[in-house]
Design a protein that fits this description.
By secondary structure, the protein is α+β, with helices and mostly antiparallel strands. It has helices at residues 43-58, 107-115, 128-133, 144-148, 215-218, 243-246, and strands spanning 14-15, 65-70, 76-81, 84-89, 92-99, 117-121, 152-153, 162-163, 168-181, 187-201, 206-207, 212-213, 221-223, 229-231, 234-235. It has a single domain (60-244), classed as Electron Transport, Fmn-binding Protein, Chain A (Pnp Oxidase, Chain A, Roll), CATH 2.30.110. The strands form 5 sheets. The protein has a 7-stranded antiparallel beta sheet with strand order 3-2-6-9-10-5-4, covered by helices on one side. Strands 1-15 form a two-stranded parallel sheet. It is globular and about 65 Å long. It comes from Umbelopsis ramanniana AG.
Length: 251
């Protein structure tokens, strides 16, 4: 870490202007500094390892599902996954893809299939190091809650625990699961789809009148390439165009 700037814990979320305030419809936009050529890369030729590098380096930033589960024997498990996103809002649904580990299911996947339940906790800056520590390759039977020092608390509708330190938690019930199979017929991932049955959000993070979630208060981490993480400290707002207001420009 030597030579890196210290982390600014007090940095606030701000809004700026859009990147090109003078942009008009039907004007092309692109990289203007120099001419570039596209490189065509066939996944079958470069292989899954290099495809992985391209995916995690280019599809950024990615949200992180910090998934807590309970095994059949009662052992608590906690692990982060960045192959994750929301699916829809009616019903509220999320999806997580969990890689196989040495040809075997990870504990998180096994626990979800056994119990039909899990919790997705959003990772915030104030417990980034502890959350990252749960990715350790601990032996089976070792709880990541104990290793990281994070605190399990009871959920309301599922047996899986929540992470007390997380300001935004979603209790989920398994709806579908789908094995992802490669060209050799090998299962490489398990795709999990879960319906959210309960939200738990810190009262200073969500406005329960407007249901607006404050990024400044949530301070979520995002996943970048390699072992890099990102933070959201600046944004801009672009209103969606409405045809009734825009159609005269194309007459």
């Amino acid at each position: 870490m030597a030579g890196l700037a210290p982390f600014d814990l007090d940095k606030k979320f701000t809004l700026s202007q859009v990147p090109h305030p003078a942009w008009k419809p039907q004007n092309s936009q692109g990289r203007s500094e120099h001419a570039v050529q596209k490189v065509a890369l066939d996944p079958q030729e470069i292989g899954p390892g290099n495809s992985y590098k391209l995916l995690i380096g280019g599809v950024v930033p990615r949200p992180i599902a910090f998934v807590s589960t309970r095994s059949k024997t009662g052992l608590l498990n906690l692990a982060p996954f960045s192959f994750f996103n929301v699916v829809c809002n009616d019903p509220p649904t999320v999806a997580i893809s969990i890689a196989m580990a040495g040809g075997h299911q990870k504990d998180t996947a096994t626990n979800i299939l056994d119990s039909g339940e899990f919790v997705v906790n959003i990772i915030s800056e104030w417990f980034a190091e502890a959350a990252n520590y749960t990715s350790i390759d601990a032996p089976p039977g070792q709880s990541e809650f104990q290793l990281s020092g994070l605190t399990p608390i009871d959920s309301l509708q599922v047996q899986a625990p929540r992470v007390k330190e997380s300001a935004y938690q979603m209790e989920c019930k398994l709806v579908h699961h789908l094995p992802i199979i490669n060209k050799e017929g090998k299962t490489t991932f398990l795709h999990i789809i879960g319906e959210i049955c309960m939200f738990h959000i810190d009262d200073d993070v969500v406005d329960t009148n407007s249901y607006h979630v404050s990024l400044e208060k949530l301070r979520p981490l995002s996943r970048l390439g390699g072992i890099s993480y990102g933070r959201t400290t600046e944004g801009y707002e672009i209103p969606r165009p409405k045809w009734e207001e825009e159609k005269e420009k194309f007459a």
